[in-house]
């Protein structure tokens, strides 16, 4: 049973997803399913970005390869997916975090207009 709903903001997540091999897409869908159905999502699946206001990263790992998909909670029951990328270094690149923060900001600005 779903505990929360996961949606994608515009096409950013879909563009990232379609650029990944099928094995990775399957793994990403498993992580999203965990976010939707688990009452408490383990931090190895979903982790708050330190120093950000409400930004999280969904964590995907296959072998030694790592991917991240940024997301945030809109209320308690809605998770909004943003951009994703393949992680090549120990630290998450600031440019990727800044892009996600901009997307989150524009999501809320559009929501206020509606």
Tell me what the structure shows.
The chain is of the alpha+beta class. It is 38% helix and 31% strand. It has three helices and five strands. Strands 1-5-4-3-2 form a five-stranded mixed β-sheet. The model has no long low-confidence stretch (mean pLDDT 95).
Indicate the topology.
Layout lengths: L4 E4 L3 H7 L3 H16 L8 E3 L6 E8 L2 E10 L3 E10 L6 H20 L1
Parallel strand pairs: 1-5
Antiparallel strand pairs: 2-3, 3-4, 4-5
Describe what is shown at a glance:
By secondary structure, this protein is an alpha+beta fold. The protein is built from 3 helices and 5 strands; from the N terminus they run E-H-H-E-E-E-E-H.
What string gives the helices and strands in order? Answer: EHHEEEEH
Name the poorly predicted regions: none
Q: How many beta strands in the DSSP annotation? A: 5
Fraction in helix: 25-40%
CA radius of gyration is: 13 Å
What is the beta-strand fraction?
Answer: 25-35%
Q: Choose one word for the global shape.
A: globular
In round numbers, the mean pLDDT is 95
Could you give the distance between the termini?
30 Å
- Number of separate helices: 3
Tell me about the biggest sheet? 5 strands, mixed
Structural class: alpha+beta
Strand order of the largest sheet: 1-5-4-3-2
Question: What descriptive keywords fit this protein?
Answer:
5 strands, 114 residues, alpha+beta, 5-stranded mixed β-sheet, globular, single chain, 31% strand, 3 helices
